[in-house]
Write a structure and sequence with these properties.
Number of domains: 2
Structural class: alpha+beta
Shape: globular
Strand order of the largest sheet: 1-3-2
Strand content: 15-25%
Number of helices: 4
């Protein structure tokens, strides 16, 4: 029994269809639908016995995920150098001394950062705190999976940007809705 084509469509006022069993073992009884008062039958296929395994494309089930878990990213951020006068939850310096903003991850701007594997994952590096560093995204992309790049070479590959305190305030205001200073900002405090 071959599937019906558009030429084989039958006009009918009934919703019933032929209930003849399928001859091909991979084709089960036909599905039917009503389209503009025409009965259209299409073969459906049996996927019995097909299993989807979560290990194929889900880092949650892997023993060594390629990306860092959230808790490791939090601790890695805490390891990065603080910036005097700025909220350490929002601003840090990466391994190379570049200024990075917490909300900007994975983009290509000069304030954007990635969580970098010091020993690349492709070369056996683990996704652990000891193998994690905050690194400006541009420098991280230049580093790739190389381990032999010197700090000086990475600094040359970094995106340079000059950011004033006012610029930092505007970024914080747009991202968080307020501006927070670090505890070590000095100056007078209104009480």
């Amino acid at each position: 029994m071959k599937p019906r084509t558009k030429k084989d469509k039958r006009r009918t006022s009934s919703f019933s269809s032929s209930s003849s069993p399928a001859r091909n073992s991979s084709v089960v009884p036909r599905a039917t639908s009503l389209h503009d008062h025409e009965l259209i039958t299409e073969p459906t296929f049996d996927f019995e016995g097909v299993q989807i395994t979560p290990e194929l494309n889900n880092n949650y089930f892997n023993a060594n995920p390629r990306s860092f878990p959230y808790s490791v990213k939090q601790q890695c951020w805490e390891k990065a150098d603080k910036i005097k006068g700025r909220d350490p939850e929002r601003w840090r310096r990466d391994y190379l001394g570049n200024l990075v903003f917490r909300k900007l991850t994975g983009c290509a701007g000069c304030l954007c950062h990635d969580y970098d594997h010091i020993v690349p994952f492709s070369k056996g590096g683990k996704s652990t705190l000891e193998n994690c560093q905050v690194l400006q995204a541009t420098a991280n992309k230049s580093k790739g999976n190389r381990m032999e790049m010197s700090k000086a070479d990475l600094i040359q590959k970094s995106s340079y940007c000059r950011v004033s305190g006012r610029d930092m305030d505007l970024l914080e205001l747009s991202a968080y809705g307020n501006v927070r200073r670090g505890q070590d900002s000095g100056g007078c405090r209104i009480q």
